[in-house]
Design goal:
This protein is an alpha/beta fold. The chain has two domains: 10-84 and 218-406, 3-Layer(aba) Sandwich (Rossmann fold), CATH 3.40.50.1100; 90-202, 3-Layer(aba) Sandwich (Rossmann fold), CATH 3.40.50. It has a seven-stranded mixed beta sheet with strand order 1-10-9-8-11-3-2, sandwiched between helices. Helix 12 (247-260) links the parallel strand 8 and strand 9 (266-272). The mean pLDDT is 94. The protein starts with 13 loop residues before the first strand and ends in a 6-residue tail after the last helix. Helices cover 42% and strands 14% of the residues.
Length: 412
């Protein structure tokens, strides 16, 4: 099946190369993603009920359209039934915080399975975890709070969809909707957590706080790389990964550098044009907040400030950033849903499709293709960060329901 080219002009997708990127991590940066911490996260997460590696889907039609040898899509829509990669990070950080509290009180032997089974239920229930979210991180934190037994408050901004809010509230979280954008909700969550003695489980410390919790969140995400290395028949040449505050991109880039050293793939970070904080930081060598409205169709990438915890890793081993327009993401999502390039129809969300959209933009732009060294022999992994986490919005944009594609009774 032949699909018409995507309606993207060369000027619409912008590229920045990171002149500071290195083939390998320095010891100082590698210390942010230690092997011991990774293995701790791996042991915990793989022990949780429902754990399984998410699938890798071959997209031969997309590869042909982009002019590369292979495109493999890591489909995070299936992660623990939460619909996104975020299930790995927020819930793991909740667990670690609770274990630290209990260890300080003489319960150093408590495990995730103990908490799931209700051990120390009354004690754990006195703790409250808090975060701000565009949807997916808050869902993970709320899920983790319910699984391990503590209370939860989730801060959302005025543009978070009602179906994303309902999906979080279904896990028993108290929802707090505020005016403003994502970055404003981050600051509000940090302020209220400090004032009330709650535990901030943030995927960024741009709103204040230490690096520790965002680093725990990123450690959870690093499991994606280990799964991919086990799943892929040969190493990729490129990895396209979406970024909001940069935690996922940093985890992917950093862990691959740890595992592969100088043989690591080229890391291409993808963002919305209107929320291009990582793009600007890599271009300029220093992160600065994006001013103005950063709300994007790619809702979970609508962030205007790079996480300080993620920045040292991104600066070291994120090679490029590509910023794309909302229209390109929307059309890519629709075409993936309809199998427009001849591949099996795929449920990829507004942010989940960003990596594929950027790859297709590069395939349509000779200058961008050359800048990314994206030759005909390139083997590309696209991190599909989410499925239809806002099912009504997805249906409106694609003309389908998620279950029409998946055959499931409820969306992934």
């Amino acid at each position: 099946m032949t699909a018409t080219p995507l309606p993207v002009r060369q000027a619409e997708a912008r590229h920045a190369h990171n002149a500071a990127a290195r083939p390998t991590l320095t010891p100082e940066v590698e210390a942010l993603l230690t092997e011991a911490e990774h293995q701790a996260a791996r042991r915990e997460i793989t022990s949780w009920p429902g754990y399984a590696p998410t699938p890798v889907v071959g997209l031969r039609g997309v590869a042909a359209a982009a002019g590369v040898a292979e495109v493999l899509y890591k489909d995070e829509a299936h992660r623990f039934g939460l619909g996104s990669f975020k299930a790995l990070g927020g819930a793991y950080a909740v667990l670690r915080l609770l274990k630290d509290i209990l260890a300080a009180e003489g319960h150093g032997d408590v495990s995730a399975q103990d908490l799931i089974a209700g051990r120390l239920r009354d004690r754990v229930a006195r703790e409250t975890v808090v975060c701000a979210t565009d949807g997916n991180h808050g869902r993970s934190v709320a899920w983790g709070a319910r699984m391990f037994g503590c209370a939860c408050r989730i801060y959302i901004h005025e543009n978070v969809s009602e179906d994303r809010e309902a999906a979080i509230a279904a896990y028993g979280a108290t929802m707090v909707r505020l005016p403003g954008d994502y970055d404003a909700s981050v600051r509000a969550a940090a302020r209220d957590a400090e004032a009330n003695g709650w535990h901030l489980v943030a995927d960024t410390n741009a709103g204040g706080g230490s690096d520790r919790v965002p680093n725990l969140v990123m450690q959870g995400y690093t499991l994606i790389v280990d799964e991919l290395i086990d799943q892929l028949p040969e190493p990729p040449t490129h990895v396209f990964v979406p970024a909001g505050v940069g935690g996922l991109a940093a985890a992917i880039a950093g862990r691959w550098a740890v595992r592969a050293g100088a043989e690591r793939p080229r890391i291409v970070v993808v963002e919305p044009l209107v929320a291009d904080c990582v793009f600007r930081a890599l271009r300029d060598g220093v992160p600065r907040p994006v001013e103005g409205d950063v709300n994007s169709f790619m809702a979970c990438l609508s962030a205007g400030e790079v996480s300080p915890a993620a920045w040292p890793i991104l600066k070291a081993v994120a090679d490029d950033a590509v910023a794309i327009p909302d229209g390109l993401a929307r059309e890519t999502m629709r075409r993936l849903a309809h199998g427009a390039w001849g591949d099996a129809p795929l449920v990829s969300g507004e942010s989940g499709c960003a990596a594929v959209a950027a790859l297709l933009a590069a395939g349509a732009d000779d200058a961008l293709r050359e800048a990314l060294d994206l030759g005909r022999e390139a083997r590309v992994v696209c991190i599909g960060s989410e499925g239809a986490t806002a099912p009504d919005l997805w249906a409106e944009a694609t003309g389908l329901r998620p279950q029409d594609v998946t055959g499931e009774k409820t969306p992934a």
